[in-house]
Amino acid sequence: MLGGYAHRIARINLSTGQVEYFAPDPKDLEMYVGGRGLGVKYVFENGPKVDPFSPDNLLCIMNGPLSGTRAKMSGRLAVVTKSPLTGTVTDSHMGGWTAAKLKWAGFDGLLIKGASDKPVYLLVKDGEVTLHDASDLWGKTTHETHRILRERHGEDADVMAIGPAGENLVRFANWINNDERAAGRGGTGAVAGSKKLKAIVVVGKQENMPQPKDPQLWREADRQASATINDPKNVTAPKKGGLSLYGTNVLMNITNVMGALPTFNAQHTCMEGVETISGEYIREHRLIKDNTCHACPVACKK
Ligand code: SF4
Question: Long-range contacts for 22-27 (Cβ within 8 Å, ≥24 apart)?
């Protein structure tokens, strides 16, 4: 059995409320490594001609074999579906703890199909997925939804939610998890809105963290990865590199000078005054705290 995987995926039909579980084919796990690869495979198999807002569109919430382990920079979650923005397959990725907690809750992914008559949210816990009424959450912002669902399911619950944009099928609507991380590409939030899926709550216990089969080999791999991440010449170097100090916003000034910064709804490629929203300026004048994802020393979230 391949290590790292939970060997369990949930198939959720929101039209019928039915939830089934299956173990992914080991050949697929080798061929399509990670959440993006496996998700794209499932979306492709679901049929390239499906309307993104049809109940038949498949929405995949996927982690990978390193998710939930101590591997550095492994805290990313892939949302894969057919995009209502581009009309083709999209994979949008978010940081935080959702990927790790999904693994600790016993899953490599959730494959969501169908559409509910009324708003629902999913609770993922102890290897099971259950559907819950979300009528009281519909219309609420992601921040409000996050707060309410944490009050309901505990402070350790990880919440990813859509807001009014997703509900109203804005074609570039995001998923937001834990108040601050976005799966921001391709309109995956609008696909959730078309299915009346307001949120996914994941409760996973760290004691379920996958352990390396060969601890010595793991330590050596970790040493090599850490040497690269911590190298002061690299943008990832904690508290020294551009990514760690300024986040991805380190690119703002650079792309503006290059004429590669889409502005004014992508009508222009640079603009005046960009310095005041650059990573450097924000670090000096606005930053409250650095934040990070599961198992990441870079802390690029500002
Ligand atoms: S904190 Fe930044 S660099 Fe680290 S895993 Fe999250 S998104 Fe990636």
Answer: 24/108, 26/1, 26/2
CA-nearest of 12, 37, 13, 16 to 25 is 37
Tell me the C-alpha distance between 146 and 135, whole Å: 15
Q: Which of 230, 296, 301, 302 has most ligand 1 atoms within 8 Å of its beta carbon, as the pocket-test mutant?
A: 296
Pocket test for ligand 1, best of 63, 70, 72, 73 (most atoms within 8 A of CB): 73
Total domains in the chain come to 2
Q: Is 181 helix (H, G, I), strand (E, B) or coil?
A: strand
**Is 56:94 a contact under the CB 8 Å cutoff?**
no
User: Domain containing 276: what range?
Assistant: 219-285
Q: Is the CB of 300 under 6 A from ligand 1?
A: yes
Regions in the chain scoring below 50 on pLDDT: none
pLDDT at 1: 79
Name residue 203's amino acid: V
